[in-house]
């Protein structure tokens, strides 16, 4: 498995998702059920997923709240409703890295990716606001399902952070 940071070009990707406000203490219990809800929503409409489920971080304030989205890529744009929103992950250049292991290791993997990008002189699609860091696209793609792969040492996640 390649876990070396790299630059990737990503096309626009339609998705269905649910946005939530969480804290670092509640993120692990709040977001996984939302992914299940989005999967149920697209299945009820007979829409096939077009990729791995993801968490997208919109606003990050590690001390207070994070505005995040649980989503599932779809092949073509969909129409959302009062609970599930339709969106598009933006095209562009991303710094990306793969992480093999438990989700708890993602904090360290994120730090390594950010340090690597800073060392390369990369500029992130991020602005500092009073509410915290506002990201254009900071995404964790979950390549396997913990229910199908019970060994957390084999969980594969791809981090992809959009560049300015």
Fold blueprint:
Blueprint: E1 6-10, E2 13-22, H1 27-44, E3 54-60, E4 66-73, E5 85-89, E6 92-100, H2 106-119, E7 126-129, E8 132-142, E9 156-162
Antiparallel strand pairs: 1-6, 2-4, 2-5, 3-4, 3-8, 6-9, 7-8, 8-9
Structure notes:
With 164 residues, the chain is of the alpha+beta class. The protein has a single domain, classed as Regulatory factor, effector binding domain (Multidrug-efflux Transporter 1 Regulator Bmrr, Chain A, Alpha-Beta Barrel). It has two helices and nine strands, in the order E-E-H-E-E-E-E-H-E-E-E. The protein has helices spanning 27-44, 106-119, and strands at 6-10, 13-22, 54-60, 66-73, 85-89, 92-100, 126-129, 132-142, 156-162. Strands 1, 2, 3, 4, 5, 6, 7, 8 and 9 form a nine-stranded antiparallel β-sheet that branches. Strand 7 (126-129) and strand 8 form a beta hairpin. It is globular, with a radius of gyration of 15 Å. The mean pLDDT is 91.
């Amino acid at each position: 498995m390649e876990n070396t940071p790299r630059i990737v070009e990503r096309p626009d990707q339609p998705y269905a998702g649910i946005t939530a406000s969480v804290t670092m203490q509640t993120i692990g219990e709040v977001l996984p059920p939302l992914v299940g809800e989005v999967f149920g929503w697209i299945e009820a409409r007979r829409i096939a997923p077009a990729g791995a489920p993801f968490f997208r971080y919109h606003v990050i304030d590690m001390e207070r709240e994070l505005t995040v989205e649980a989503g599932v890529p779809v092949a073509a744009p969909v129409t959302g409703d009062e609970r599930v929103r339709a969106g598009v992950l933006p095209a562009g250049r991303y710094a990306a890295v793969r992480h093999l292991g438990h989700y708890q290791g993602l904090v360290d993997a994120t730090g390594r990716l950010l340090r690597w990008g800073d060392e390369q002189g990369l500029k992130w699609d991020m602005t500092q606001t009073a509410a915290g860091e506002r990201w254009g696209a900071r995404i964790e793609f979950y390549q396997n399902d913990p229910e199908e792969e019970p060994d957390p040492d084999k969980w594969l996640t791809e981090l992809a952070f959009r560049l300015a």
